[in-house]
Amino acid sequence: MRAKQFTFLCLFLFFDFWAWGQDFQFSQQFSNRLHVNPAFAGLRSDYSIAAAYRTQWRNLDNGFVTQQIAADYKFKNKKTAAGLVASLDKTGKAGFTRTQVGGIYAYQTALNENFSASVALQASYGSQRFSYTDLIFGDQLNDNGSINPTSQENYIYDPISYLSVAAGGVLYNNQFWISLAAHHANQPDIGFGIESKLPVKFTLNTGYKFYINNYYRDAYLYEFSITPTITYTQQQFFKKTDLGLYFTYTPVTLGLIYRGLPLSSNFMYDQSVAVITGIVLEPFRLAYSYDVVFTGAGSRTGGAHEIAISFDKIDFDKIFKSRASKKNYKHIACPAF
């Protein structure tokens, strides 16, 4: 057990040095679409509530655990929407915890007969801290294998707080979308004791839905479709490209995502394939995914499990009325998971 704790602490410190404050990421990007881009608020439904749980690197004393809850609401004018995102990110026995709560305001409008757009701003309050309860330092280890209950280490890292600002935009029609977001635009200071700026994170996401067959029954869309997606993430020196392919046959969606395609970076990152399964049981959506890691440190420490559940309310009658009066009515075509 002591060896695992020591190994995990070394890995945590090593990756903290090389990662320059990277944010956590979800495999189920569209189950957690407000985490990807605040401009997704109000695009998929009139209102929704979603919760996600992700755990990875379980072989190292609980590894990394991330929890998030998000909600969005489209106002009656159909032009504006609001959202809320709250997350908790913990690094197992390393004792590091980051909590963040953010509010979103989004505005949507039709640009022409072919495209609509959404733009949004997000302001978040964050806090992070260390907990030394489960850590073992060198002066606690005795030659006979026993452990001293106390350490002479000075616990100087007091919790710190920060304000983070994000902005995003989405251009979309009934089959295509492209999304660009910038998180931590103000580069908040998250350092313990010394200044450490959180770099701006840019996320570019796009995709196209190919309908093999689709029809409406009782104001509900049934579809058989294939949707390829691309997501590019850059945060200072960290660069990553993910390729996704989703198959939807109502009410089931299957997805495959190749994460960490080494296209534009000189650094070696974990590469994995995420397998996503989702089902829609109106008004609920349930999804599970597993990341199979085959390169990097993650290949020796276990994969990643992710579970998401959401409640989505869509007024299909209003959609049909809007389509009847405005032939250029658009809805976002991105997958639900």
Automatic annotation (TrEMBL):
InterPro entries registered for this protein in UniProt: PorP/SprF_Bacteroidetes
One Pfam family cited in the UniProt record for this chain: PorP_SprF
Name of this chain's protein: PorP/SprF family type IX secretion system membrane protein
Organism (species): Adhaeribacter radiodurans
